[in-house]
Amino acid sequence: MPSWSNWSGSVVAETARLEAPADEAAVATLVREAAAAGTTVRVAGSGHSFVPVVPAAGAILSLDRLTGLLDSDPAACTATLYAGTKLHDATHLLWEHGLALPNQGDVDTQALAGAIATGTHGTGPAYGSISTRLVGVRLVTASGDLLDLDSADLLPALRVSLGLLGIMTRVTLACVPRYALRERVWQHPIDECLEQLEHTIASHDHYEFFWFPRSDIAESKALDPVDAEPETEDPPPLDGPGERVGWAHRIYPSVRKLRFNEMEYAVPAEAGPACFRAVRQRMKERHPKVGWPVEYRTLAADDAWLSPAFARATVTISVHQDAARPYREFFTDLEPIFRDFGGRPHWGKFHTSTRADLAAAYPRFEAFCALRREFDPAGRFLSPYLAGLFA
Ligand SMILES: Cc1cc2nc3c(=O)[nH]c(=O)nc-3n(C[C@H](O)[C@H](O)[C@H](O)COP(=O)(O)OP(=O)(O)OC[C@H]3O[C@@H](n4cnc5c(N)ncnc54)[C@H](O)[C@@H]3O)c2cc1C
């Protein structure tokens, strides 16, 4: 049997078929074949999720052959791309058409649909996740039909839907005119960082910090728009404190050479500092050997039913551990802290939340499950892991 694994190596699964369909009709055919065989089928993006949101026993599809920009409207600031396009390629294509995403996350190696499906986000209190930019989608449904959707009623359910409502083959995104950013990175003691936190967040478009537990130093990073066009097309990445200016799509992504596992919870923005302090204290008391940083970001409230930022201004806090080291005991020891602060897990990152936890944390969770049953009554897109949470 062919096998599939994710980026960090934490998920390895066998599947009957690994397929890379050449076009939308081929995706639909594969879904109909799965229906005829009574098996499951799911799509892999870039495998950058840390939990088993991809594997299916029947077939795992890659949309690596369904890539590229189909259409753009610079006046309306929208663009339609094939869903398998990697974020890196998508943002470069948008730039060529005078467009950009208003915000991006830490890397740009994910597939567009993969990033959208889990609510992948960057930082900035005025900015939502990439999923919030979704204004239209073409789905291959559980019956193997092609369905174009852009209704305001359904988009909030579709925006973060883990492939449970159908396979996205093309996505239309609300963009902004392309822009340049100034990046500034500096280091300071964590206590000083926390004292200034509210002011620093308010002073920048995109601010985040990484706390390094062994040195107690915070590395702060701020990105702000600049009016002038950048002088350098491809500014080299900063290796520590410093400054650089470049087009936004070249400034946002970092290069992550070391593999890791990650857990992230989204808490109400006002609870962010206290939650971080509690995490810091527990790490100092019980996990003094962990050297990987804790990341603190902000996120605007949005309307996506399964978004960790649904209906509330949000702070996200992520903890990391080397991919070669055990991580479960460390992560699960911190998880109750996040829950106490009203945390909602990132769908692509480690968590042990049960269906009951999720239903309590996400006000529209049961509405999503009901819609999922309507879209996919036979569970064509349900793996055992996802059935445990959504069936
Ligand atoms: C190095 C690294 C950095 C990261 N940085 C960030 C960050 O800054 N911010 C953040 O929020 N997250 C971040 N993540 C998490 C990551 O963005 C998410 O887990 C994202 O979903 C991964 O995208 P992917 O293309 O690899 O999708 P996968 O992990 O392959 O799939 C994710 C989900 O999307 C579904 N899916 C994929 N394609 C389709 C499709 N065509 N139609 C329907 N469903 C589909 C899959 O079935 C699965 O359920 C990071 C992860 C790593 C490893």
UniProtKB/TrEMBL annotation:
Stated name of the protein: FAD/FMN-containing dehydrogenase
Listed InterPro entries: ALO_C (IPR007173), FAD-bd_PCMH (IPR016166), FAD-bd_PCMH-like_sf (IPR036318), FAD-bd_PCMH_sub1 (IPR016167), FAD-bd_PCMH_sub2 (IPR016169), FAD_lactone_oxidase-like (IPR010031), Oxid_FAD_bind_N (IPR006094), Vanillyl_alc_oxidase_C-sub2 (IPR016171)
Organism of derivation: Tepidiforma thermophila (strain KCTC 52669 / CGMCC 1.13589 / G233)
Keyword Oxidoreductase among record annotations: yes
GO cellular component: membrane
Regions annotated as coiled coil: none
UniProt superkingdom: Bacteria
Domain FAD-binding PCMH-type residues, every copy: 11-178
Swiss-Prot/TrEMBL keywords: Oxidoreductase
GO molecular function: D-arabinono-1,4-lactone oxidase activity; FAD binding
Pfam family of the protein (one): ALO
